[in-house]
Design brief:
It holds the Pfam family 23S_rRNA_IVP. The protein is mostly helical. It has a single domain, classed as de novo design (two linked rop proteins) (Up-down Bundle), CATH 1.20.1440. It contains 4 helices and no strands.
Length: about 140
């Protein structure tokens, strides 16, 4: 029971963390310069950065292990894409040096957590599949 409770606590905490990330992305995009390259990168960042939270929430509401893994993987892909757009904005000189460092660090941390969660879920699914095959 304690394990399930701690999993619930982690899921809720991570839901809030991805939502906070999405809000930070939204605020950043609203403050980007109006150059065409910034508008395009900003819209892509807005889409991917908010999609991380939406897809993680969807994973938490999944009706099956397969659906959970699919949504979790989408959230991971979106986090990776958000990292790309943040790197492009930063390295392209569109923002003052260091301005995006904290957001990039958070995006990479979210990616890492999602990657580990996906691996754990896949390993658990494989183990269950092997155990069911032996019965």
């Amino acid at each position: 029971m304690t394990d399930k409770l701690s999993n619930f606590d982690f899921a809720e905490e991570f839901r809030q963390r991805t939502k906070a990330f999405a809000l930070r992305v939204m605020k950043l995009v609203d403050r980007l310069p109006t150059a065409p390259s910034c508008r395009v990168a900003g819209m892509q960042l807005l889409r991917s950065g908010t999609s991380v939270a939406a897809n993680y929430r969807a994973a938490c509401r999944a009706r099956s292990e397969r659906e959970f893994l699919a949504k979790l993987h989408i959230a991971l892909e979106e986090a990776d894409e958000a990292v790309l757009w943040l790197e492009l904005l930063s390295e392209g000189g569109h923002m003052p040096e260091g301005r995006l460092d904290e957001l990039l660090t958070e995006a990479r941390a979210i990616m890492s957590i999602l990657g580990k969660a996906e691996k754990t879920a896949r390993d658990k699914q494989k183990k269950a599949s092997r155990e069911n095959g032996k019965e």
